[in-house]
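User: Predict the structure for this protein chain, please.
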Amino acid sequence: MPPRATGVGSGRRHPALPRSPESKCCCCAVLHTYAAWRHAPNQLNGLALLYALEGKRSEAEALHLKVLAAQKRVLGEQHPDTVRSMTNLGLLYLTAGKNEQAESMFRAALTQYEKNAPDDWERYNCQSMLGASLTAQKKFQEAEPFIVDGYEGLVKRQTKIAGGTPSALEKARDRAVELYRSWGKSDKAVEWAKAQR
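Assistant: Here is the predicted structure, written as structure tokens:
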């Protein structure tokens, strides 16, 4: 949590608080410190994702776990940033082949999305990734509704996907192709590969 000031509103500066050049009093310093603190977890998540892209999975996992623990403690499990961190950690586990851990993380995130953001595109993206973790464990029948419903949910919300990028939608489609290919339903895999572009 950001440091708390004594004498807030008194115009006195607390010696423990960093002071930005534009801060004129203790209140300004508190607001400046809070603004920097509020974005730190997202920046650390970004660093963890960079580690993962560089193949430094153990460093990425350690950082994701620290950020997630701090967010749960400070923001609570239901906060969108916390849920996003759960999803990021689940994706790291999925790409590392830790499919049971990925499933657990995606299920926890999906529970929060269903409670607090049932219409958010990220909920359907998480649902699709949960299906992928089940596919990797050969739980095909259980995976299918998560993957199909996740894809359909993303299609309906494609204009709301962050940055307007189609990659979430394309990856969800690819998960459906992988599900049916792994399940031995090659006709359905071909159907998804062709028809859903």
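The first helix runs from residue 26 to 53.
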